[in-house]
Amino acid sequence: MRRWRALCAASAMVVVSGAWAVPSLADAGCFDRTTQPYTSVVDSHFHLRPFGGPGIPLTEMGEYWRQTGVRYVNLYGIGQILPVDSPCIYYLDCLGTPVLPSPKNDVENAQDVAQTNVDGVHLTLSMTFPDLANPGGILDQMRQLDSAYPGKFHWMGEVNLMKQALLGNGAQPATLGAIVSWSPFMDELRRRDMPINIHSDLGNDADPLKFLYLMETVLTLYPENKIVWAHMGLSNELKTIDPALHIATLRRVMDQHPNLYLDISWRVLEDSYFSRGPVREQYVPFFDQYSSRVIPGTDFVASRKKDFAVYAEELDVTSRINKYLNDKAFRDIALGQSYFDLLGLPEQAPPVCAA
Question: Residue ranges of the Amidohydrolase-related domain (predicted)?
């Protein structure tokens, strides 16, 4: 474990969205799963900004990543922020307080990256501002960010199509008509080959597939876009779906839409599903089969109320499923090959050592 952690911390440079100078993971030879950690080297779903209150500085987060062996991070803001005069840190603690779409977090992330050295970690900036329910100004806002930070943004999301948890704070879910109106910015994303991570709840415990039609509409209308489905459609509102139904639904949709990828971030997946052996045993063969289209992440929100121990725990919890994957899936997911391929990075994950 020490050797792998040392390797992950060895590069004394910051690498940001487009400058691919991180030494290859494959330079270390094969990866020995019997002695090396199972935690993912990619955190593709990380929120540097909280909904409200102060965040953890990027310099401090850099230390967290180096200590845990994370070398590739997607820097999300949060596209919906609490009012500046609100004392709330987390939206669910203040139901009724509106969360408002804003590019503020994206600008602050870009400024932090421009001013901060994060040794040995490849950072990808993401545009999280889009209000999918009101898409009219998204393309113009993309261009404004590009003008201020040319060539720095290579991802979009996490953006909300249907997030039930935000409905109590005035968030608007996108309608079918709004989805049709996404075409200008989706065309631009396709032109750039830029992935978009969409949070779209599959349903809830009362009706597990209630909102599936929304994501299927997106996939049907925009088949050439690289679309990442956050948390595989699961949420705190959907903790009891029959795994067989969930897997069959994902399998059907992924077979129909080859540009769909799954984000397996957020500890809800482990706590509510993967931690139970009989349930985990249903998901593992699915991940083994579709591993080239599965990417890991923590969904950590860097509020100043948290610290290294919290991040390390979140990384561990969200990585536990890696222990049960076959070697190819482990290389694709835990060692990052699926993420590298999705972003078009030249990096190559190391092969897994033969047993």
Answer: 181-303
